[in-house]
Design brief:
By secondary structure, the chain is α/β, with parallel strands linked by helices. The protein is built from twelve helices and twelve strands. The chain is globular, with a radius of gyration of 19 Å.
């Protein structure tokens, strides 16, 4: 098929391009003029230069396209307006262009961040006092405390609007994606900080992590098996922050952080930290502090049952491949 991938030069998008080429599809890689193409420069893809906020460039890129994987979003430091203009309004423009071009199916790469905060505050799910987040979890957080998650939530609303207009769109919600090629250090930043000894403490709370290869397989399976308008969590292993940091430390060969700081204490400091972050470089953002202490554990059974996403790779393997990639690139 003729497939367009937005966000093609990023972590997930580049791996998608590679997997689709391996499957024999004609891939058109959509990216901005100034996007580094390091991760896809060796691939036999067609490059479509443009911007998802500019409809004219999208219209040209959609010509002859049968399937779109929409993996573009605003990451890293940005103003609230930039985040919403790209992640929300940009998604709306991509879907509108798909409707105009008669695209057969779209796979929208969202995030578990679109679910908001787990409903039970600071209680470990294993105690039987909380449930795992699943596809029915709804946004429940002050947008000002988590712009990225809110933008992802609003982008899913854009998807539902497009579905109501007749566009066939499936949503996938990856958890923390780990592996080689995390060029923007979304998950890799923690791995590098542990390896360099810059992370001295841990805290309460937890996460779900998944190997990049399983994330990509989830996207492709969503294309083949997903139901229109539905969400599918792409996750693998639930673990506490301490367990995750201990695993990272073991893989990279250092002593793990031993100091435990209460999640509620750190969340209470998010205001002062936000002000301090304007004048000094901090190891994490004030926005990140609002989420400390929560157990972002996910139920991936829907993706297992419907998409066939089973036999996922160990998170240990993902960490090792990520760390080795950074070493090969001279980052560490």
């Amino acid at each position: 098929m003729k497939v367009l991938v937005t966000g093609s030069t990023g972590f997930i998008g580049s791996h998608l391009c590679r997997a689709l080429v391996d499957l024999g599809h004609h891939v058109r890689a959509f990216h901005r003029p100034n996007s580094p193409i390091t991760l896809i420069e060796d691939l036999p893809v067609e490059h479509a230069v443009g911007d998802i906020t500019q409809p004219d460039t999208l219209s040209k890129a959609m010509v002859g396209i049968e399937v779109v994987f929409h993996a573009a979003a605003r990451l890293g430091k940005s103003t609230p307006r930039q985040t919403y203009d790209v992640t929300v309004a940009g998604t709306g423009k991509v879907l509108s262009a798909c409707l105009d071009a008669g695209v057969n199916r779209v796979v929208h790469s969202s995030s578990v961040a679109a679910f908001g905060i787990p409903h039970t505050n600071g209680i470990h799910p294993s105690k039987g006092l909380a449930t795992l987040m699943n596809e029915n979890h709804s946004w429940n957080t002050d947008p000002e405390l988590w712009r990225y998650g809110h933008a992802k939530y609003l982008a899913e609303i854009e998807v539902q609007k497009a579905v109501a207009q007749g566009l066939d769109v499936v949503i996938v919600n990856p958890a923390l994606v780990i592996g080689a090629g995390d060029i923007n250090r979304i998950s890799g930043d923690v791995i590098l900080r542990v390896a360099q000894g810059h992370l001295k403490f841990t805290t309460h709370g937890g996460l779900n992590a998944i190997h990049i290869a399983d994330t990509v397989q989830g996207h492709i399976s969503a294309l083949e098996r997903g139901n229109t308008g539905e969400r599918y969590i792409l996750g693998s292993e639930n673990m506490t922050h301490s367990q995750f940091l201990e695993l990272v430390a073991e893989v990279v060969g250092v002593t793990p952080p031993r100091i435990m700081l209460p999640g509620r204490l750190l969340r209470s400091l998010s205001g002062p930290m936000k002000a301090l972050g304007k004048v000094v470089r901090l190891p994490f953002s004030a926005e990140a502090m609002h989420k400390i202490g929560f157990y972002f554990y996910c139920d991936g059974s829907k993706a297992e049952n419907v998409l066939g996403l089973t036999n996922r790779r160990p998170v240990r393997q993902a960490i090792s491949e990520s760390y080795n990639w950074y070493q090969e690139k001279g980052v560490y």
